[in-house]
Amino acid sequence: MQAENKTKNNMETQLVRLDAPYNIICGTNGEFALHIATLIMMREDKEGALSVASHPIVSVNGELGGCFVGSGKGNADGQVWMHTRLEDCYVVCPQNYQTVSISELKDVMKYYAKLDMLDMPLRIATSFSWAMTKYGCKIILPMDDNNQPMADIAVCLEFEDTNGGQSCMVSADDKSPFYFYEYFDNEPPFSQYVPTNLQAVKYMAELRDTYLRIFRFDGLRSIKFTTRNKDYQWFVDELNATKIDGE
Fold first, then answer.
1. Domain count, the chain
2. Are 44 and 52 in contact (CB under 8 A)?
3. Listed range (109-123, 124-138, 172-186, 218-232) with the worst mean pLDDT
4. pTM of the model
5. How far is CA 188 from CA 76, 92, 170, 199, 201, in A?
């Protein structure tokens, strides 16, 4: 690990170079990359108050060229992720990991959901698969009783009524290897499908079909939804029957 310092006006920057193997991280734009260095920016305002921000410098394609911090066009040069602070990035694993469980993808999505970034799942799912392949990590599906990767996975959905039953949050249970989460408004009668629920159903179907498209090369064939909540069996039935155009 090496550090370099530069001073300009009332701002001081420090470049901290990291040693390989580098960590694979996910930024707040849903992109995965190798964290190869950190840019620390220290700024003093007119009142003398000091603020410090750390930004990751990354290699998107997994290679390092002669220029350490370059044009930011996705070449071998390092790129500064000015759009996110280092503390908001999710660390997946070191680049020399041989295998990564698909449940790690769920953990990444849950992490960003806690940051109120619920629009990330589709982008993260697509980027995750690309990144793991690029950096030499094999994605492992859950194993069945015969210690073989599961091709057909059941996802149990949990429903939580809010606002006196006028709205509902639906999510995959903890045992599911996949992330699913959505919020929808209920309309009477609550025990059956009504048109206002269509957006939530379509969103979750789109995420399901994205998983199937991305991980079919890893052996995934189907994702079926179940629930223990009989009041919302209609939602599960509608979701299982919904196919997204083009999938």
1. 2
2. no
3. 109-123
4. 0.79
5. 56, 43, 18, 17, 17
